[in-house]
Design goal:
Blueprint: H1 2-10, H2 12-50, E1 52-56, E2 61-65, H3 79-97, H4 101-105, H5 110-115, H6 120-131, E3 137-145, E4 148-155, H7 157-160, E5 169-178, E6 181-185, E7 189-201, E8 204-214, E9 218-226, E10 232-233, E11 243-247, E12 252-254, H8 262-265, E13 266-267, E14 272-279, E15 289-297, H9 301-307, E16 313-318
Parallel strand pairs: 2-3
Antiparallel strand pairs: 1-2, 3-4, 4-5, 5-6, 7-8, 8-9, 9-14, 10-13, 11-12, 11-15, 15-16
């Protein structure tokens, strides 16, 4: 003990300087951690505020942006993109909530009107009345992929007077910029791409006009002209996999053959016909369709029926 006391007395000044320096650094560390934590908290709160958009200022209901990244790809999204596109969706939802159906309808793209709702009456009957059971609904919006947003529509049990049993109505809404104005494709309709490619083979002319993409499938608008001297059939529908589209990885997506009347695929000589064919091709940002294929083309349909002529031709159109 005497030795320790003697050591302390001999080095008192140095020991106290070490204690003061250590205490000083501990205080600095505490202060730094406090301000860093406060800054991080403010940044988080700011991000949450920026990602929240009021739908109805009177009821204080909100559209909640859950993330600034695409759910499908993880791609980051700019604040400007989110503000412009989600702001457009917000306005559409407000119009629907306030029963301004003509204004809401006018926010749709021309292709969406053509494909889904030819009039305001159709929009009311087949969209609004199915989605908006009451004015008291809330929404959650998140970017699904690029310009497409997943919208969860949550009814208020108190206003509807019945439980929704946890069921949330869901829509995929795609934002398109048309002539410097934002327009919407709704009800899982992603959009249209023009193709306008023609191929003639064995005196059969096939033109791919355009393709409409939905969340669950793709539909191709096709014009076929039979220049042969015989009646033809694009397919006999005996095999559901003979009509398909094919992506760059050689994956085949067959047609909805059960939805196609066989008469549509039979063309008398000189006849031209435009048809729509749906394919089992769920929407994906990475999918690249390269070919549309008819692998069961019958060049002499009457001979096939009357004489049991077998064999089929393949017509492949590069997209």
């Amino acid at each position: 003990m005497n030795n320790l006391r003697r050591l302390y007395n001999q080095n008192r000044k140095g020991i106290w300087w070490v204690i003061i320096i250590i205490a000083f650094f501990l205080i600095i560390l505490q202060v730094t951690n406090y301000f860093v934590g406060k800054a991080n908290k403010e940044k988080i709160e700011e991000n949450e505020t920026n990602n929240t958009i009021n739908v109805n200022s009177e009821s204080n209901e909100q559209v909640q942006i859950n993330t600034d990244k695409s759910v499908l790809t993880g791609e980051g999204l700019s604040k400007t993109k989110l503000n412009n596109e989600v702001g457009t969706i917000k306005q559409f939802l407000e119009n629907c909530k306030n029963q301004k159906l003509e204004e809401a309808y006018n926010m749709l793209t021309d292709e969406c009107k053509e494909e889904m709702y030819a009039s305001v009456k159709d929009f009311r009957e087949f969209y609004y009345e199915n989605v908006f059971e009451s004015e008291r609904v809330s929404f959650e919006v998140e970017n699904w992929n690029r310009d497409t947003y997943k919208v969860d529509i949550i009814p208020d049990m108190l206003s509807t007077g019945k439980s929704n049993n946890g069921i949330v109505k869901q829509d995929y809404i795609t934002v398109k910029k048309v002539n410097d104005e934002y327009r919407l494709n709704i009800n899982n309709y992603i959009g249209r791409r023009e193709i306008n490619k023609t191929k003639e083979e064995k005196d059969i002319v096939i033109t791919l006009n355009y393709a409409d993409t939905y969340m669950e499938y793709e539909s191709y608008n096709i014009t076929v002209k039979n220049k042969r001297q015989e009646n033809i059939a694009l397919d006999n529908l005996y095999n559901e996999k003979t009509m398909y589209i094919e992506d760059k990885n050689d994956v085949k997506y067959p047609a909805y053959t059960h939805e196609i009347p066989k008469e549509l695929l039979i063309l008398d000589k000189g006849v031209e016909r435009t048809i729509d064919i749906k394919y089992y091709s769920r929407y994906s940002s990475t999918k690249d369709i390269k070919n549309l294929v008819f692998s069961g083309v019958i060049l002499d349909y009457d001979g096939h029926i009357n004489r049991g002529v077998v064999g089929a031709e393949v017509i492949k159109i590069k997209i």
